[in-house]
Amino acid sequence: MIKVLLFAHLQEEVGTESLSIERSNLTVKSLIQYLEKEYPFQSLQKVMVAINESYAKEDDLIQDGDVVAFIPPVSGG
């Protein structure tokens, strides 16, 4: 199982701050594709992704038990 943490507007789009995904051995890219298909996200293409608190690239592998965070771009001044 993979725990997915959501931040900012992503929480609002899905209505929760985290998801439990019963899949493993996915790349970041394939997890994004799965989430966009299964949940009402507008887009996950420009979010930062971290696996176990370390920033990840789209071809990084996600293992069973990992915690994946989706962090949207932040603007401010």
Q: Brief description of this entry?
A:
This is Molybdopterin synthase sulfur carrier subunit. By secondary structure, the protein is an alpha+beta fold. The chain is built from two helices and seven strands.
Portion of residues in beta strands equals 25-35%
Main beta sheet, described?
A: 5 strands, mixed
Which shape, going by the Cα principal axes?
globular
Structural class assignment? alpha+beta
CATH class label: Alpha Beta
* Gap between N and C termini: 38 Å
Can you give a write-up of this model?
- With 77 residues, the chain is of the alpha+beta class.
- The protein has one domain: Beta-grasp domain (Ubiquitin-like (UB roll), Roll).
- It is 22% helix and 31% strand.
- The strands form 2 sheets. The protein has a 5-stranded mixed sheet. Strands 3-6 form a two-stranded antiparallel ribbon.
- A hairpin with a 2-residue loop joins strand 4 (48-51) and strand 5 (54-55).
- It is globular, with a radius of gyration of 12 Å.
- The termini are far apart.
- The relative contact order is 0.30.
- The model has no long low-confidence stretch (mean pLDDT 93).
Key descriptive features of the protein:
7 strands; 5-stranded mixed sheet; 31% strand; alpha+beta; Ubiquitin-like (UB roll); 77 residues; globular; two-stranded antiparallel ribbon
Detail the topology: elements first, then pairings.
Blueprint (H helix, E strand, L loop, with lengths): L1 E5 L2 H6 L3 E4 L4 E2 H11 L9 E4 L2 E2 L5 E2 L4 E5 L6
Parallel strand pairs: 1-7
Antiparallel strand pairs: 1-2, 3-6, 4-5, 4-7
